[in-house]
Amino acid sequence: MTTASTRSKVRRSLRPFWLIVAFYVIWFLTLGVLQTIAGALGGPAAVDTREALFQWLTLISVVVATWIMLRRVEKVPWSTVGLDRAAAAPPVIIKGAAYGAITIGLASMLLLATHMLRIDRTIPGSWWGEAGHSTIVLLPAAFFEELLIRGYAFSVLRRAGGWRLALIVTSVVFGLLHAWNPGADAESILAVVVAGFFLGAILLATRSLYAAGAAHFAWNWVMSGALHIAVSGIPSRDPDYRTVETGPDWLTGGPWGPEGGFAAVAVMFVAIFYLYARYLRRVEWKA
């Protein structure tokens, strides 16, 4: 009797781990199938991470994995991951986008005002064309990362060990996954970990993964589409002008972009403290 009870407890304790493993396996296999099909039809763009097609394939694959695990395996509501109708309300999404845009925008404006960043002229081009390109690439990329890190896996960890555990684990993983980006170092990875806490706090405060995705997209778009500066070490196109760093890398982020510097980290901490004081101290996500 004791042995059976012990085995049952072990199985229950390991269930969250196996659910998360299954989610990532399904995502990986689905992406492989989609890339194979798209590669046969569309050529190298299907596997080029810089192309919009690849970003949309990754988003579709993680949506499929989320649907299978959430609705077919666990059979729990979309609200469990913040993807229900209430979470998709325009005011909620706009609030999320505002959090992202204002936070990185304020950090960048402070750096520009103190001459730690400057704007240089470049070869004339189409600003609107680059803004559109940034949108079709960064929009699926942002929502893919949110679904992959703060979607189903976050919900499993939250239900198993509480929102604090989910926030810590996913933020650390989020930072480590950026270690393969160009120019990554310890400072930039730590800054991305803080960004993980920031985006996770938005998810918890709004109970909307759409809001977190909107914040993520707006954050990246301000850097790429508006400032024409690197995003997580990946250079942006720069028609008409580009933003370059003139201050120390530890403050401006250097080649990584502003999000890797102390200025952005400091503003993110202010935003996190605000979200915690206003929302997170009382958060009780029952779904």
Give the termini distance in whole angstroms.
33 Å
Beta-strand percent range: under 5%
Query: Strand pairing plus helix content: what structural class?
Result: mainly alpha
* Overall body shape: globular
Overall strand count: 2
Main sheet properties: 2 strands, antiparallel
Average pLDDT for all residues: 92
Number of helices: 10
SSE string, helices as H and strands as E: HHHEHHHHHEHH
| pLDDT < 50 runs, ≥5 residues | none
Total discrete domains: 2
Q: Could you tell me the radius of gyration in angstroms?
A: 20 Å
Helix content bin: 55-70%
Task: Describe the protein's topology.
Blueprint: H1 2-42, H2 52-73, H3 90-113, E1 117-121, H4 127-150, H5 152-161, H6 163-177, H7 186-206, H8 209-226, E2 241-245, H9 249-252, H10 262-278
Antiparallel strand pairs: 1-2
Helix pairs in contact: 1-2, 1-5, 2-4, 3-8, 3-10, 4-5, 4-8, 5-6, 6-7, 7-8, 7-10
Provide tags for this entry.
287 residues; 2 domains; two-stranded antiparallel sheet; 10 helices; 2 strands; globular
Would you give an account of this structure?
The protein has 287 residues and is mainly alpha-helical. The protein folds into 2 domains: 1-75; 79-282, no CATH class. Helix content is 68%, strand content 3%. It has helices at residues 2-42, 52-73, 90-113, 127-150, 152-161, 163-177, 186-206, 209-226, 249-252, 262-278, and strands at residues 117-121, 241-245. Strands 1-2 form a two-stranded antiparallel ribbon. Helix 3 packs antiparallel against helix 10. It is globular. The protein starts with a helix and ends in a 9-residue tail after the last helix. 42% of the residues are buried. The model has no long low-confidence stretch (mean pLDDT 92).
